[in-house]
Amino acid sequence: MNRRGLFRSQKVPVDERLASHYTSAMREISRLGDQLVEAQARNASVAERREIHARLEHELGRAVAAASAIHQELFDAVGAPHRSSPELVMWRRRLGDVLTVRVHHELRQMDDGGVIPPSQKRISTRAAYGPHQAGMDFADPPDAAAVPPGARGEGVDISDVDTVVQR
Question: Beta strands of 5-139 (E only): which ranges?
């Protein structure tokens, strides 16, 4: 018996409302994934693909929230040792799966040309800007905002990358 009075063999109740949220979100994720593949195959507009990605991200957030809440409830109900409930193990696996799908979607979204607008912020590097070893010079580098882009030869000018992507 654990600290909540449940035996290892006892089934821990799962919040059915949250479970149905998870199930409906996963169905919608599957449908939107198919829709995205179809949109990419027919070379749909960037705006249409952005909308599908945004809806997919929303549904992934719903699924993560539901799985996380159920996992937390089960963890609190079961207590230690936390592997004593098959339901807890199942929801931990589901939470891990949906988090993995979310990461894969983020990577897929970055690979989908033009969907994520490039940043306009200059990126400064940690490269050496003098005759010193990179990372070993503790003096402050020149202020990136005071020097025009490309004047120092360091960093990446995202506006140049944006021009190449839109061609």
Answer: none
